[in-house]
Sequence to fold (333 residues):
Amino acid sequence: MPDAGGTRLKMILTGQQPQPSVSGALCPLCEAEVPHQVTSRGQFRVLFCSNCQLQFSSPMENPGADFYQEFYLYADRDDAHRASGRGPDWRFQTCLKLCRADAGPKLLDIGCADGEFLALARTQGFDVFGIDFDERAVQKARRLRQLEHVMTGPCESLKCIEGWTEFDVITLFDVLEHLSSPLGTIVTVRELLKPGGKVCITVPRLDRYPRVFDEAADFPPHHLTLWTAHALAVMLRTAGFDEVRIMEKPLLLQDLWKHLKWPTLRYIRKLKANPRDLIESGHSSSPKPSRVAGLVKKPLRMSLQPLNWVLQAGSLGRGHTLLALGTKPFSGS
Fold:
């Protein structure tokens, strides 16, 4: 069985890149050779590693900032005056319960987007820092949330930013699935943490149930990896973290609805880009988001709550998100 520990970590630290055989692809997490693909999406093969239970793409290539500038899920970042109003976020609330602020510790959010989590963490006593490669999102974080220590750039630039070291907490909310080297990023995270510091990660779950998802969002080039609890644990332990804890976000009807809504949003954006399609479909003008929609979101969430309780009490499904927590050890750090 391939070594998922010291050998892999040494290769990352020394910059060595393993090479796959002609017939197979190497798992980016444990280096096991995976000969058979699950499916394919354009130039990407999608494979599942039975050794560490990670689903990954081949090649593992992030599409770059231009892709995310155009991708429909991030369209609201063009609106420099609109902050997120999604209501309580399980990821953020759970992280702050597990990583409480004492004496104003430093917190870095990698992939901070428009700073929603950083603004919340600041109210809990954290001295907050953030990085995101989308300039639109960073500008929103500065303007709408008055966040000073937010920067535009890739994860790889973190070690070069003066003063961005010795963090007490580093968070990555739904970031690893977009990266070409998730394990390498977590090794960098370990180097930026104080001994005893914590990393908190959320990722999309591979073994969710029911298997409802929008393929454009859940496959490459948008998502390069999908994760299991075992794969997360392998990654954190390989990178040198202790006290690894994995938690599952409860399944909510909103999660299922989201994956049905996203294809509709994609279709609407296509219509907006092609006025002739709008005329042929019977619409006289491009569809515009309703201001009323923001007012009905909260009542809708409340009306769904009883059904969500039934889902959770009856164990009728598995959540779409996994959260992992790891601690940098004091010895050998």
Residues 65-251+317-327 form a domain with the Rossmann fold fold (CATH 3.40.50.150). The first strand starts at residue 25 and ends at 26. Residues 18-22, 277-296 have pLDDT under 50 and may be disordered. The chain has two domains: 65-251+317-327, 253-313.
